[in-house]
Give the backbone structure.
Amino acid sequence: MTNVQHPVRERRLMRVVLVLFAAAATVVFLGTRSWAEEQGKSGKLTEAEQVAQQNAERMLSEGKHTFRFDTFGDEAFWTDALQLNKAIAGANLGGVGPGVSPKTALAVGLKVDSDALPQSLVSKLKHGRVNLDDPATTLALLQLNAVVGVKGTFNDAGNLKAVGITCALCHSTVDDSFAPGIGRRLDGWAARDLNVGAIVALSPNLQPVANLLGVSEATVRAVLQSWGPGKFDAELFLDGKAFNPQQVTDGVVTGTNVSGATLIPPAFGLVGVNLHTWTGWGSVTHWNAFVANLEMHGQGTFYDPRLNDASKFPIAAANGFGNVRSNPDLITAKLPALHFYQLAIPAPAAPAGSFNAAAAARGQAVFNGPAKCSTCHVPPIFSEPGWNMHTPAEVGIDDFQARRSPDERYRTSPLKGLWTHQKGGFYHDGRFATIRDVVEHYNTLLGTNLSEQQKVDLVEYLKSL
């Protein structure tokens, strides 16, 4: 019996030793990792690592400031040319017309950063002791730098002498934590409440725009008013095509003379995504330079010889937009940090309770399987890694907006954070009112024959991204 039991005891002892050895090794490993982490926290990084870390922190800070507050010198357009500052101030405060009150500003989708408000003003707002019908209140908010995306400059007399716009105007909102339209900034979110056309139409002098487009001021105002909330027509100054003559979806005409303006896209969740904008003009950096120079009308440098094509871009070609040079250049040096900051903004997670979790779990399988969504919207970036462009026929819609771009294709838009921009519809022009409408479109286009339950589950998954 002793000779039989001894090997058993040895095996048991060996198992105990191995367990203890594994536990000890785990402790040593965790201790080493903890020590390494502490070394990093204490600044004991290599010199190269320190430089990289400091550079990242600097670029994030500079990029955020540029995104929120830099006008790139565009006051030369919005103030000197269009005189928008006068319309905001109103006749009683050195401008023209009735002026823009906070109520009017909020009605056209402008937002107020509550963190920029002093406590005394917050208290007065809470107790209703601030006149929101008075343009003077709007000027006070501009002096505090509290109007998201709009920067005012004042003279010694307190008059608004200049106004400019920043990236945040169209690509930020607030969380409404104080009141509707007033709250903490949400950088990168699509400004789907913002009526850009109505704001620009307030300008006393639209003749410079009319001259550029070769039309009357009245026509310019009519076009601007046709855009509606959450939309902007970036190509108007390039080709002058204000309306889509025939909107077609799945071979069916769904609208005629539809505004050429497109929905403002989010500027978050772009890391790993190749091309920017609905029609893939270029990278994030390319589009930042494009917008800063040609849309915001800042003072910088921009080069894109594709705009020299007079048949496709007659206005751009005639005005030399393919090769813009300003001295001084107030844009180019700020593009790297701006790009860095934008790529650092993640798509926000869907709030708990905003979707059915069980259905979303089933919908993920539908997304990756029978619905064929993941063929183009490849997780986790939910666009194609590579050349993420498709012909209008592949997307199942008309080619009007695609033809306004150099590549004449539509981009596979990333889907993360889809829940944040359900207002205004889907696709570039909002032709699909709901996510379910998009699902139905692709079910028809791709012939996937999804069941009702699969469609419901897929919608919940898309809302969860």
Observations:
- The longest helix spans residues 2-41.
- The chain has a mean pLDDT of 92.
- The CA atoms of residues 231 and 371 lie 30 Å apart.
- The two ends are 65 Å apart (CA to CA).
